[in-house]
Write a structure and sequence with these properties.
Blueprint (H helix, E strand, L loop, with lengths): L22 E8 L5 H8 L5 E8 L7 H5 L5 H6 L9 E4 L2 H7 L1 H9 L6 E3 L1 H11 L4 E6 L3 H13 L3 E7 L5 H4 L4 H11 L6 E4 L10 H8 L3 E3 H12 L21
Parallel strand pairs: 1-2, 1-3, 3-4, 5-6, 5-7, 7-8
Length: about 260
């Protein structure tokens, strides 16, 4: 027989904070993405900054045509992150798609759902990061095929960068890109960096390059920017976090306003 337990109402409603966390970052990522959430959990999330994720449909292989197919999903994907609540930053986590869709179109699509948010793309964040680091001559390493790499080469050239060396690994499945061994990333990075370059950019949010960026810098003596390192840095700075974290690489010691 169950005893009768009196349940007593508290007598008042609890006081509510404006937000559970001071700053809110939304990530719109690919359904196949293994890397972005882990990198942002490691580099960005804290007791002050919350990271919230929405996944949108994506089907391999990584080609300009398949990348472009994500554009119609961006508004809905952003809108599913804490619906009807404001976000401080929304980041779309695909570098090659940012090239083929365009930074401006991505920003407009996300603003349709989250009009007050700052919008970050890996491409725009990488450009700002390279400028902050004083890089004008760069080397680029991508995991893509030549077909998918070509628009990226054109993107950086169009924005005024001189590309000394552009190396691609020939992969077409972003799940394989996420499995490239860390030692292999570092080895290919050393080979891809031309001696005269000011910095190396390693593309693709699937590639775990942010984990070895500082190591590559120590081995080469040159700044390294990766897709996820650049977006993490941009999101942190836009949320007012200016803490220098040299263990993550030179970029994480720099304010957002330089360059």
């Amino acid at each position: 027989m169950t005893a009768s337990i009196e349940i007593i109402p508290a007598g008042r409603l609890p006081r509510l904070d404006d937000r559970p966390l001071e700053k809110c970052i939304g990530l719109v990522i690919l359904a196949t993405d293994h890397t972005t959430e882990a990198d942002f959990r490691r580099m960005v999330a804290s007791d002050r900054i919350g990271v919230y994720v929405s996944r949108i449909h994506y089907a391999n292989p990584v080609t300009p045509e398949n990348l472009l197919k994500m554009q119609p999903s961006l508004t809905q994907g952003a809108g599913l992150i804490l619906p009807d609540e404001a976000l401080d930053v929304v980041m779309y986590s695909c570098t090659s798609a940012s090239v083929v869709i365009g930074d401006g179109k991505i920003e407009a699509a996300i603003h349709a759902a989250k009009p007050g948010a700052c919008v970050v793309t890996p491409t725009a964040a990488a450009v700002r990061a390279l400028k902050v680091l004083g890089a004008r001559q760069i080397s680029v390493l991508t995991p893509y095929t030549i077909e998918t790499s070509r628009p990226m080469a054109d993107y950086f050239t169009r924005l005024g960068f001189a590309i000394d060396c552009f190396t691609c690994l020939g992969l077409s499945d972003d799940r394989e890109m996420a499995r490239i061994a860390l030692d292999e990333i570092a080895a290919f990075a050393r080979q891809a960096l031309a001696p005269q370059s000011d910095a190396l950019f390693i593309s693709c949010t699937a590639v775990r390059a942010a984990q070895v960026a500082a190591r590559i810098e120590a081995e080469t003596g040159k700044p390294v920017v990766t897709s996820n390192l650049a977006t993490a840095w941009a999101c942190l700075r836009l949320c007012g976090d200016d803490q220098a974290r040299p263990e993550l690489g030179q970029l994480m010691t720099r304010p957002y306003g330089e360059g």
